[in-house]
Amino acid sequence: MVEILIQEADQEITEAITRSLWEGISEVLNWGLHWGQGANQIQITLGTLLLVTISFFATSYVLGLVRKIYTRNLSETDTQKFISVFKFIKYLSYVIVVFAVLSFSGVNVTPFLAASAALLVGVGLALQELFQDVLGGIFIMLDKSLQAGDIIEIEGKVGRVVDIRLRTTRAVTRDDKVVIIPNHKFISDTVYNYTQNHKQTRETVSVGVAYGSNTALVKSLLLKSLEKDSRILSRPKPFVLFEDFGDSALIFSINFFVSDSFTDPVVKSDIRFRIDQLFRQNNISIPFPQRDVHLFTKPTEELPKTD
Predict the structure, then answer these.
(1) d(CA 204, CA 217)
(2) Which region holds residue 303: left if phi is over 0, alpha if psi is between -120 and 50, else beta?
(3) Between β-strands 151-154 and 192-193, what pairing exists: parallel, antiparallel or unpaired?
(4) Architecture of domain 143-193
(5) How confident is the model at residue 116 (pLDDT cuts 50, 70, 90)?
(6) If DSSP codes are grouped into helix, strand and coil, which group holds residue 241?
């Protein structure tokens, strides 16, 4: 009987200690800031902050696991694109989780939402171009209208795309300068993508020859200027067009295909050198612009004789 009483006493003491310990922990967790009254009362306690922190790290771990599972079979280029979009999703997830945890823990988030609504409207108006850039980056990555390595022309500048990010796209121009393009430009402006369908593009070099020149010889020399140039594709075959009878010259163009249009200014320059050399060797002249000037003189009137 005595042993039973002792066991009951120990159990009561243990329960009292446990209850006292939990009450102490609850009291510590309830430390914090309290302001407002009624439905608009806002409470930020140590327990709430601890719960938000744990939820934040748990969300971060889950998102990291999802990213790892999703990208394990993707190529490096597709992985970079997915990570750029995933950053936007991650930040949005953090905001949702924080507000959800605050609401679940008893914090009235209505004042936060009401206060942030006007702020978000102002920020949205100020940063609408930023949002356009972000949405443009998402659309580019989803529909794959632009990829790293593509050669594009925008606002008269030609560049090779090296990196596509969520807000901007970087490209290297032909003079080895980096141009940073906001992604909304690819939605609102006209952009030429030289390599969207395939890598090869058709290029043209035009030249004028004097009237009376042997046009068959001119055609032969223009085709000869492309020989032994490994940068020019043999298929499709190059061809010559007799474009027009100009004011002071017969206008011809030599059309050819290259697999790297990014370097076509150098290719065209070399072709022009060879055309000039071949024309000189075969007495084909490239005329200066000529104009006929006609002078009309008005005869002078005879003055009346005076005595």
Answers:
(1) 19
(2) beta
(3) antiparallel
(4) Roll (2.30)
(5) low
(6) strand
Q: How many residues in the chain?
A: 307
Q: Does this model's pTM top 0.85?
A: no
Q: In which element (H, E) is residue 301 found?
A: none
**In angstroms, rounded to a whole number, what is the distance separating the alpha carbons of residues 291 and 294?**
10
195: amino acid identity, one letter: T
Under 8 Å between Cβ of 225 and 206: no
Check: CB of residue 29 under 8 Å from CB of residue 50. Answer: yes
Domain parsing of the chain, residue ranges? 10-126, 143-193, 201-281
CATH class of 201-281: alpha beta
Token duo for residue 297: 């003189």
The distance from CA 96 to its chain's CA centroid, rounded to whole angstroms, is: 28
* Tens-digit pLDDT profile for residues 199-226: 788 899 999 999 999 999 999 999 999 9
Chain position carrying tokens 């002792």: 6
CA distances from 195 to 79, 260, 290 (A): 21, 9, 41
- How far CA 244 is from CA of 105, 222, 253, in Å, comes to 81, 16, 10
* Residue of 71, 76, 93, 184 lying closest to 137 (CA atoms): 184
